[in-house]
Amino acid sequence: MTPKARLTALLALAHLRADKSALMLAKAQGVVDELGRRHRALRDAAHAGTGDISEMVIQDRHDQWREEQLFRLSIAMARAEAQAQPFREAHGRDVARAKVLEKLIAKQSR
After folding, report:
1. Would you say residue 62 has pLDDT above 80?
2. How far is CA 21 from CA 26, 65, 101, in A?
3. Burial class of 18 by CB neighbour count within 10 A (0 to 12, 13 to 18, 19+)
4. How confident is the model at residue 3 (pLDDT cuts 50, 70, 90)?
5. Are 25 and 87 in contact (CB under 8 A)?
6. What average pLDDT does range 12-35 have in this prediction?
7. Alpha-carbon span 74 to 36, nearest angstrom
8. For 52, which DSSP code?
């Protein structure tokens, strides 16, 4: 096997590896994005105007529940981000590996 053929085979493997790491990253990032969407929806929910005491009590309880949910979602998002970080790093390494091999093949072709 010639050096160029070896590099071409390694490049194909590097692209496969980058595709696999992109898939793993997409799964992890999907969880992060969904948690972020829920957090934004809950945070941006409009307050209803209240007129009497019973509505104000209900609104207060809802606000307390919403604050607790926002806190829980924030913690879940932080955990999901931490779990996704190794996938980001692996994907970055895999893409860089493929680019280095592409440069080596281009250099061999000269």
Report:
1. yes
2. 8, 38, 17
3. buried
4. confident
5. yes
6. 97
7. 8
8. S
Which two tokens mark 66?
């919403």
The C-alpha atoms of residue 5 and residue 39 are separated, in whole angstroms, by 50
The mean pLDDT value of the chain amounts to 92
Dist. CA 110–CA 101, nearest whole Å: 15
**64-109: pLDDT as tens digits:** 999 999 999 999 999 999 999 999 999 999 999 999 999 999 988 8
Tokens at residue 63, please? Answer: 């606000």
Cα separation, 24 vs 22, whole angstroms: 5
29-54 confidence digits (pLDDT tens)? 999 999 999 999 998 887 766 678 88
Give the pair of three-digit tokens for residue 83.
């779990």
- What does the alpha-carbon distance between residue 67 and residue 81 come to, in Å, rounded to a whole number? 21
Cα 49 from chain centroid (whole Å): 37
